Amino acid sequence: MNSTALNAPRDRDNLKQLVSDIVLYARQQGASASAAEVSEGFGQTVTVRQGKVETIEYNRDKGMSISVYIGQRRGNASTSDFSRQAVRDTVDAALNIARYTAEDDCAGLPDADQLATEFPDLDLYHPWTLNVEQAIELASECEQAAFRTDKRINNSEGATVNVSEGLFVQANSLGFIGGYPSSRHSVSCSVIAGKGDGMQRDYWYGSARDAREILKVEEIGRIAAERTVRRLNARKLDTMQCPVLFEAPVAGGLFGHFVGAVSGGSLYRKSSFLLDQLDKPVFSRNIRIDDVPDIRRGLASSVFDDEGVRTRRRAVVEEGVLRGYFLGSYSARKLGMQTTGNAGGTHNLIVQPGDLDFNGLLRRMQRGLLVTELLGHGVNPVTGDYSRGAAGFWVEHGEIQYPVEEITIAGNLKDMYKHVVAVGNDVLVQGSRQCGSVLIENMMVAGR
Fold first, then answer.
1. What is the pLDDT of residues 252-299, one digit of tens each?
2. Is 1 a member of any domain?
3. What is the pTM of this model?
4. Which of 207, 186, 212, 165 is closest to 62 using CA atoms?
5. Hey, which bits of 173-228 come out as E strands?
6. What residue stretches are annotated with the Metalloprotease TldD/E N-terminal domain (predicted)?
């Protein structure tokens, strides 16, 4: 293990003692309930550009947060100082806030019977024994692989190697205490081809809990280069309606909008385009979406959520029908429901792949737009109206014909979801949302 890595067992014992002391002190000072979290972590990032070291960044962080309740009045405070006096001052500050806060009949800890009591090892911690010199070498190899791939690659935004480890422990006054170390490492490369107004850039990256599961740096550089040069000599399109295929790296964003729409905060505030849709069809019948918290080494795996509530596998969408929301305790109470163990967000969101690979989806589409990059943030979470700048490729006879740019795609997410023709089996695992490319039957494409 490198000198910067966490000493996970020893550090976890220290944090467990600290968080237990925090909860005890809060009770002694008059809190009727409390929940606390303490964490430590470090990161190392090295970027090489044009063969030279551009940045070396190192951070080591720690933090503590405490939520206290006086009846149904809540106060929260945080600090990065773990000294005894600073911790007590932070708890006292949270109590003072609670005393002046209005009562909220939905405030409070989760019900005790919802808390996790078993803590299986999900294999989330894999230190990467990488010193700065080794990181520089890997980043250099990644960038050089991109330059070697095609002589039209003439510039670079750099190749980056990132190492990250963390450890947290959380506890509450109901007796819950749990925590674990985790790691997340990545390698990325972004390069440029062409000149003047014809310049194009693209990138590729890999991310994993265990660095051994990341693509070889030479492969990441090669893919970044190939994705860049294929965009050269891009054209504009006429305005039309046509099928749109979202390539896997951008398709996950479609489901990110879905998650936001069926999460507790949007629902109880009535700021969602999917209000009152539980047990109703919101996608085409070929769509199944699962929230899966227990994938070993999963990038969003966890035994419990941010409140200590146990997590569980569940189908959120079955045959296009919405079967569940994403709720923490507070939003669940606001809606008169039960928490789903999603305080803090989703876990590994798995969109069930279909039978077609990427080329099969192109053949299925026959004629239309392949989107490989989205620009801007033109999505209305209340109405579902969707309008994004885009770039990609025009497809005829099931084959890519030429790159396109400076276009806008538009529709409404409610309609788009119900007209998903197919989801590919070209699934990428680069984050919490896992899905293949997504073919939508028809959208407006605005061009020249």
1. 999 999 999 999 999 999 999 999 999 999 999 999 999 999 999 999
2. no
3. 0.93
4. 165
5. 177-183, 185-193, 200-208
6. 38-98
Helix, strand, coil percentages in the chain from 3-state DSSP, rounded to 5: 25, 40, 35
Asked whether 255 and 263 are in contact (CB, 8 A), the reply is no
| Chain mean position to CA 64 | 23
Q: What are phi and psi of 312, to 5 degrees?
A: -155, 155
Last residue of a domain, one of 196, 229, 262: 229
In a domain, 25, yes or no: yes
Q: Which pLDDT score, from 0 to 100, does residue 2 have? A: 46
Cα gap 234→45, rounded to integer Å: 34
Q: What are phi and psi of 80, to 5 degrees?
A: -110, 5
Is 72:89 a contact under the CB 8 Å cutoff? Answer: no
| pLDDT at residue 10, rounded to an integer | 58
Instruction: Please count the other Cβ atoms lying within 10 Å of the Cβ belonging to residue 414.
Output: 18
Q: Which residues contact 215 (CB under 8 A, 6 or more apart)?
A: 187, 206, 223
Query: What is the CB-side half-sphere exposure of residue 384 using CA atoms within 13 A?
Result: 19
Nearest-angstrom CA–CA distance, 115 and 93: 27
Q: Radius of gyration (Cα) for the chain, nearest Å?
A: 24
Structure tokens at 55: 């940045």
Looking at residue 311, what DSSP letter applies?
P
Count of alpha carbons within 13 angstroms of residue 442, beta-carbon side: 3
Residues 34-80 pLDDT 10s: 999 999 999 999 999 999 999 999 999 999 999 999 999 999 999 99
Q: Is the dihedral angle over the CA atoms 406, 410, 413, 417 positive or is it negative?
A: negative
Rounded Cα gap, residues 76 and 78, in angstroms: 7
Q: How many domains does the structure of the chain reveal?
A: 2
